[in-house]
Amino acid sequence: MRSLVRNRVVRRVAGTVGTLFGVAVFVFVMLRAIPGNQITANLGTEAAALTPAQQQALERYYGLDQPLVTQFFSWLGNMFTGNFGYSARAQQSVLDLTLQSLPVTFELAVFSIVLALLIGVPLGMLAASRTNSARDAAGQVVSLAGLSIPAFLLATTLLSVFAASFGFNPNGQGFVSLFEDPLLNLQQMFMPSLVLGFGIAAPILRTTRTAVLEVRSNDFVRTARAKGVPERRLQVRHVLGNALVPIVTMTGLQFGYLLGGAVVVEQIFSVPGIGRQVLLGIQQKEYAVVQSTVLVIALAFVIVNLLTDVLYRIIDPRVRAS
């Protein structure tokens, strides 16, 4: 048993290291495939007026004169020592920028997941309670809307309607953290969380409906109903309780996606999250910012997946024994 657990842990660690290394190589190569570099991004059209000596001096300053393999392993080695690089745009180290933006994105992801679960799980159970009925059709419509409406369209619509009709635009006041002003922070998080939560609620709704229908067809549900178990207790404890594994898995995947995939919504609502940090880094061709931040996002995604795996092994002993 111990050897089985040890082998599973070794496979997990090896898979994690391999995933992170693959992400690092992919981001490094893709950034250098984009035309331009940090010199042209900073100087713009003035870069054409540089003399060869000035060009070489700047390339030496930014480390662009070194072979790509040397640049890659130099950056990777610096990350292991806590040196994530430096952002000339923000005049801060990338580590400090990440420590500021990651909690913001994490807060946004938590609020979005909570809203998604509040929307998706009840509607999924309601749709599964009577298939091919009006409530099932309504659930399918909500799911289809969540999947098909682009986040940028819903975000700009909400922002325009609330700002123009109700004069409500807390995001225009400059972002404040939850500890500085909890009320204003919650107001600033409301609309972006609603946009992201509505989109994530769609796959959670579909997963809940499918899982609940599968569990409801089992013999123990019919037995419990025949024994007179109250319907609400039957649905919550016996049906939903046994349908949690796919729901938790889908929720974990969506939460991991939010850690790096909320860049459009963060940009529209001026939320200084980690996705917006990557976007600004790409615009300024700041290789260290993009590479290090994407690697942090990948690490966070892997950690969320591992925690999800642990969670559904706790929920379902059958998975734990496999």
TrEMBL record:
Cellular compartments annotated: Cell membrane
Membrane topology: Multi-pass membrane protein
Bilayer-crossing regions: 12-34, 108-129, 141-166, 186-205, 243-269, 289-312
One of the GO BP terms on file: transmembrane transport
Designated name of the protein: ABC transporter permease
Presence of keyword Magnesium: no
Chief location of this protein within or outside the cell: membrane
